[in-house]
Design brief:
The protein is α/β, with parallel strands linked by helices. The protein is built from seven helices and eight strands. The chain has a domain of 148 residues: 3-Layer(aba) Sandwich (Rossmann fold), CATH 3.40.50.300. A five-stranded parallel sheet has the order 5-6-7-3-8, with helices on both faces. Strands 2-1-4 form a three-stranded antiparallel sheet, covered by helices on one side.
């Protein structure tokens, strides 16, 4: 389980992230409302231990070391941090990403085989900025899950690409409930109407049943 306890990050002139407490369990999708984008990104970096907090702490299953949380977490599509470059072709992005992960030789060398395995072989030769935004989300999620240690996926503003909210909500809920059963956190600028998944808000102590488990 992910627990953020009064997590706060200072900026140069003003706080990037006000103290925020939240929890997300494996198999759960948690939406977090945050404004503006720099706050969304600060929270995403804090939850994945890629930025040292100014106050508070983040932990995974009792491990509150930055190294431990960073090891089991994946930061997905964070603007100006690790969002993929638009000029790349899909197969080049996949090749670059797979090269970062240990694994079978065929997975590192045969990009087309990997894409066929994930039902995305028709995208291989396309430019990344030309593919459907939902396909982009699927692609980046599959790549994030290539790490065998990825128990926590944190998506930075997945709503910014114009995907209908029902579509990305259903998809990320399916990822959380899938075979890998990760905890999934989506940090968004707006909570969709009639949202049926747990919701947290930046700057609050957000109580959830998961905290009592």
């Amino acid at each position: 389980m992910l627990i953020a306890d009064s997590l706060a990050i200072d900026g140069r002139h003003a706080p990037l992230l006000e103290p925020t407490s939240l929890a997300a369990a494996r198999g759960e999708l948690l939406l977090v409302h945050a404004e503006p984008q720099q706050t969304r990104t600060a929270l995403a970096l804090g939850l994945t231990a890629r930025m040292r907090p100014s106050a508070g702490a983040v932990s995974w299953s009792g491990d509150s070391t930055l190294r431990g949380v960073r090891r089991i977490s994946a930061l997905v599509d964070s603007p100006e941090i690790n969002e993929p470059e638009a000029h790349l072709k899909v197969r080049d992005l996949v090749a670059e990403d797979l090269a970062l992960h240990p694994g079978p030789f065929w997975r590192r060398s045969a990009v087309e085989k990997w894409m066929e395995l994930h039902g995305m072989d028709d995208l291989s030769g396309q430019w990344l900025d030309a593919i459907d935004p939902f396909d982009r989300l699927r692609l980046l999620t599959h790549l994030a899950l290539e790490s065998s240690h990825a128990d926590l996926l944190v998506f930075d503003a997945p709503d910014r690409h114009g995907i209908p909210s029902a579509d990305w909500l259903d998809y990320l809920s399916g990822v959380a409930g899938g075979r890998r059963n990760p905890a999934v956190v989506a940090i968004v600028g707006r909570i969709p109407d009639r949202c049926s998944v747990p919701v947290a808000r930046v700057g609050h102590a957000n109580p959830f049943p998961a905290l009592e488990a």
